[in-house]
Each structure stands twice: as C-alpha cells, then as structure tokens.
Write a structure and sequence with these properties.
The protein is of the alpha/beta class. It has a single domain, classed as Amidase signature (AS) domain (Amidase signature (AS) enzymes). Helices cover about 40% and strands about 15% of the residues. It is built from 17 helices and 11 strands. The chain has helices at about 5-15, 20-35, 45-60, 105-110, 155-160, 175-185, 215-225, 260-265, 270-285, 300-315, 335-345, 350-360, 370-390, 415-420, 425-430, 460-470, 470-474, and strands at about 40-45, 70-75, 115-120, 165-170, 185-190, 210-215, 255-260, 290-295, 395-400, 435-440, 445-450. It is globular and about 70 Å long. The two termini are about 15 Å apart. Bound molecules: glutamine (GLN).
C-alpha cells in the first residue's frame, strides 16, 4: 500500500478495485507479519474492521465520505483515545483508560479516518532510541538488532512496515523527525500551536507538538489539514493555525540556507555528511537557490533544551502520584510513603533522571543559575534564528549525527542527549521542521535530512518533501 497515496487508495476504492475492508485487512496483516518488532502495544482490529465495513456501506449507499476515508492511522501511546488505554509507555499509567478523545483524534474520527492501534514509545516520550519503554524496545525493520530512533520509534516503524497510512507521534525535541530518518520515512513537526495538545500527555508543554509520520507528503498534508485549527481546550493553538496548509502557494524556486556549522560538526557521521552534501549539491541546487547560512550557536541548544524540558517535565509529571491516576504501590504506611513508593515503582530510570534534573534546576538555590539562564538562552536562540530566517525560505540541516545504533549497544546518557543536537532547535523556537529520506549508508541504513522553516510555513516543507520523495518518483 505504501506506493499509493490516500488519493490513489480512495480512487481504487471508488472504482471498485479495492474495498476499505481489504485495505484494513492488508494493514492488519502487516502488523501480524512484523509482530516481532514490538511496534504496537495494542491493535484495535475489531473496531478497525467494523469501521472499514461501515465506510464501504456508506460508499455503496452513495453517501459522501469524509476527507480521511481510507486513511488508517496509528496512534502513539501518549495521545488519548476515548475508552482506550493510554500509558505513555509507562508502568505508572498501565491501568489508565482515557475517558475522552484528544482534539486531533476527535477531528480525525469526524473526517472518517480509522485508528488502527496504539504504538510503543519511550516512557513519556523521553528518549532518542525507544529503549526506555516499559513495554520493551522497538526494533528497526532494516536491522532487528538496531534501534529505530525515538521517542516515537513505534510510530515510525508502524509506517516503515506499511501497517498504516500515517502515524501520529509527538515531537518535543525531535521525536518524530529523528525516528523517521532512522527508518527511511517522512516526519513532520508542525509549528508550535498548529495542532491542539489537548489529550496529548504532557512532557514539556512549551515544546510539545503532535507530529505526523508517513511515506509521502500528501498524506501527511491531508491529516495535518484535518487535525489542525484552534481548540477551546488549548489556548496555545494560534488563530494562524486555521489557515489551510496549501502547497500551491509556494513558489517554484526557494531560497535555501545550508547550515554549515551542522554539516561540519564534529559529531556527524561521515556517511550522513557525504550523502547530505551529495543531495544538496546534486538535487536541491538544481531547482533552488542555495547558499551557506551561518548559525554559530549549536553547542548551546542541548543544555538549553534539557534544562527547560526537564524543568517542565518535573512539574507535568507531579500529577502521577498513585492517587489520581494509574499505578498505586501496595503496603504504604503514610501518604508520603504512598507517593514515594508509587513513583519509585511506577517510573523508569530515564523519567526519574529528568524529574530529578528538573527539580534541581528549579530549586531556589539553582533557579537563577540554570532555569533562568536557559530561558535567556532560549530567547537569544529565538532572536538569532528569526533574524537568520529573514534571508531564507528554509534552512537545511542534518536531523541526527548518527546512523541507527545497536539495541544492545551501551551509550552514555550524555552521549544520547548530545545526539539530539540537530533536532531540538525547531522546538526551542517553535518553528516547524521536517525530516525526509535521501538515501542509504553503505550498509543499507536510511539517511534523512532536515528542513526547517518559519512558523506557519509547513507548506514549504511539504512541497520540498514532495519534490524529493518517493511519491515524486512514482
Ligand atoms: N530525545 C529528546 C528527549 O528525550 C526528544 C524527545 C521528544 O521529542 N519527545 O527529550
């Protein structure tokens, strides 16, 4: 199915070549065939088939279909679906069922999109390789001993194995774009305030965005145009979000700035660098105006990001206390002990590390030295990047310095944090960014490149993605 866009699937169904039920059966069979990759925590098989059947009936009765009829969508385990479990890949929420739909989910359902299942992820979306899930690691289809990236590793692999048209993920510092790159698919982080965060489990609220992963740009566009728009339950969604994302508005020739400091960074893998430059010079430069863009502050983005997101996480995660939600430890003798035991047993080590870091940087003695300073650094980065963007339609940068690493490979926490160096900047600033596949390493591992643009310009990202992706080559 992956060679077909939603429009093409729809056409085949409308001309009788396929039925919605057959499409559903195909995706469900893909899930079964790749069960060993540990992608789905839960598959909603019965509902999915029943809804596909209902759509076939609707079509047969001559009723009009919603914009997402034929779109089967996987949902990262951090997005609430009414009546379904949502755990954030954590033991602490193991028994929690959501009483409501996230706004994005509600809109997808209204447009006849069908949800296929809940995908595995790093605990509370904290991680870069999907090894932090309570449900075990997700494996990369390209090499089962390799990580798929994270934290939306399950979302990316759900697309990679062709078990859905589009996957919903979340991107706080690269979690949609980085796994998309490591699995050879497209990942979009929209502008902060484009898609409502209502019903998205909060990690770092001023960075979090629901993101979309797919095989091609037009499917991502279709889902984005349904999921976006202002929402009564999330005041951070801007009125700007109501404007349609329209690829027709984008000119043919764009001014692209190449972030030289990133491609020359000491951490970047040689093959990624080589393939990226080959792509820039061989393909991008053919139709677009390219020039080097100078950005000298890359080394500040990781401390800024990890201080601020850990601070926000420590506050957001305080609600998981063993009383209001989810897991409660047994045999506690006092309220304090109950909180302490429930959190000790319910959270995994990475989440605890973030809570401790966050509490530390917010504590009265260190607030000014860390949290406040990081806020200033964030403002500085926003101003600097905004000024840089005056000259360009988009900036081209790597998305990750690394090829997929081994599931058993030991990597220090600091090295793992540092591997986010190219992906966190758009979240610090709120800008949209996309990762698109551009080729493979000698050993056959996917390589992606990142495009960043100004807020509300997702159309530029998707137009470029379309120009250089599979869909274009069909
Ligand atoms: N790797 C980053 C982190 O652990 C990004 C995670 C994300 O985008 N959710 O914070």
């Amino acid at each position: 199915m992956k060679d077909l866009t939603l429009e093409e699937i729809r056409h085949k169904v409308e001309t009788g070549e396929l039925t919605f039920v057959q499409v559903a059966e195909y995706y469900l069979a893909q899930i079964d065939a790749h069960a060993d990759l540990n992608v789905y925590i839960e598959v909603w098989q019965e509902d999915c088939l029943a809804q596909a059947k209902a759509l076939d009936a609707k079509l047969a009765a001559g009723q009009s279909l919603g914009a997402l009829a034929g779109a089967f969508i996987s949902v990262k385990d951090v997005i609430c679906v009414a009546g379904r479990s949502v755990t954030g890949g954590s033991k602490i929420l193991q028994s929690y069922k959501s009483p409501f739909d996230a706004t994005a989910i509600e809109r997808i359902k209204e447009a006849d999109g069908i949800l296929i299942g809940r995908t595995n992820c790093d605990e509370f979306a904290m991680g870069s390789d999907n090894r932090n899930s309570y449900y075990g690691p997700v494996k990369n289809m390209i090499g089962q001993d390799k990580v798929p990236g994270g934290s939306s590793g399950g979302s990316a692999v759900s697309v990679q194995i062709d078990s859905c048209l589009v996957a919903l993920g979340s991107d706080t510092g690269g979690s949609v774009r980085q796994p998309a790159a490591l699995t050879g698919v497209i990942g979009l982080k929209p502008t902060y305030g484009r898609i409502s965060r209502y019903g998205l489990l909060a990690y770092a609220s001023s960075f979090d965005q629901i993101g979309l992963i797919g095989h091609n740009a037009s499917d991502i566009l279709a889902v984005l145009n349904v999921a976006k728009n202002t929402c009564a339950n999330d005041g951070t969604v801007s009125e700007m979000s109501n404007n349609p994302v329209d690829l027709e508005e984008v000119g043919e020739k764009l001014k692209l700035g190449i972030m030289a400091s990133a491609f020359e960074h000491e951490s970047i893998n040689e093959e990624i660098k080589e393939k990226s430059l080959e792509f820039i010079e061989g393909q991008l430069a053919v139709n677009h105006d390219i020039s080097p863009a100078s950005f000298d502050y890359l080394d500040y983005v990781i401390p800024t990001y990890y201080i601020l997101t850990s601070a926000e996480a420590s506050a957001n995660l305080s609600r998981y206390d063993g009383i209001r939600y989810g897991y409660r430890a047994e045999n506690s003798e006092s309220l304090d002990e109950l909180y302490c035991n429930s959190r000790t047993e319910g959270f995994g080590p990475e989440v605890k590390r973030r809570i401790i870091t966050g509490t530390y940087v917010l504590s009265s003695g260190y607030h000014d030295a860390y949290y406040k300073k990081a806020q200033k650094a964030r403002r500085f980065l926003v101003n600097t990047f905004e000024a840089l963007m005056e000259e360009y339609d988009a900036i081209i940068a790597p998305i990750t310095p690394k090829l997929p690493w081994g599931i058993e490979e030991e990597i220090s926490t600091v090295d793992l944090y540092l591997s986010d160096i190219f992906s966190v900047l758009p979240n610090i600033i709120g800008y949209p960014a996309i990762s698109i596949p551009i080729g493979h390493s000698k050993e056959g591992y996917p390589i992606g490149i990142q495009i960043i643009t100004k807020s509300w310009n997702e159309n530029k990202l998707l137009k470029l993605a379309k120009e250089f992706s599979l869909e274009h080559q069909l």
